[in-house]
Amino acid sequence: MSQEITTALTEALGGLPPVVIVFLISMLPILELRGGLLAASLLGIDLWTAVIVCILGNILPIPFILFFIEKLLNWMKNCKVKIFQRFACWLEARALGEKSQKIRKYEFWGLLLFVGIPLPGTGAWTGSFIAALLHIKMKKAVPAILLGLIMATVIMCIISYGGFAMIDLFS
Predict the structure, then answer these.
(1) Rounded distance, CA 85 to CA 33, Å?
(2) Is pLDDT of 169 > 60?
(3) Which residue from 63, 30, 14, 155 is spatially nearest to 3, judged by alpha carbons?
(4) Among positive and negative, which fits the CA dihedral 46, 63, 138, 35?
(5) Is the distance from CB of 53 to CB of 16 less than 8 angstroms?
(6) Where do the H-state alpha helices sit in the chain?
(7) Which end of the chain has the lower number of beta carbons within 10 A, N or C?
(8) Measured distance CA(36)–CA(81) in Å, rounded
(9) What mean pLDDT comes out for the span 86-98?
(10) Comparing 25 with 11, which gets the higher pLDDT?
């Protein structure tokens, strides 16, 4: 599904420079770094440029999520608009569901693996969201998320660009 969304977005944003397209896709929830690297490989962007752009795009929303998501959810839950209330409750319940239990138990390592293993529903957005709701201290959450992003980058580079591109990356 991510590949189809990434392809559609890449085509829809076709008038923009390829690096901007990759940056924007990397900022989006659900697609994040995975989608950015897929888009970069589709657009023929070299691996080093893709890695830098995708990491920067994926990192940008993290501080906002860590600092403001709880305030936003509280505002939505107290808002008079019922759809906002329902959406906030649904989002919070989903984030604090079964996925968050391993993060709650292992904190740093749980968060690092959650962000680092590129599966649907995982990544920096959701990891930051869960870390904020679980009140994980910034000095644990931020390094875990950043190291998880590096781990996800390596895995996705192998998937998106192939193993030989990774060998060229370090030579």
Answers:
(1) 30
(2) no
(3) 30
(4) negative
(5) no
(6) 2-12, 18-27, 32-43, 47-59, 62-78, 82-95, 98-106, 108-116, 124-133, 138-161, 163-169
(7) C
(8) 34
(9) 88
(10) 25
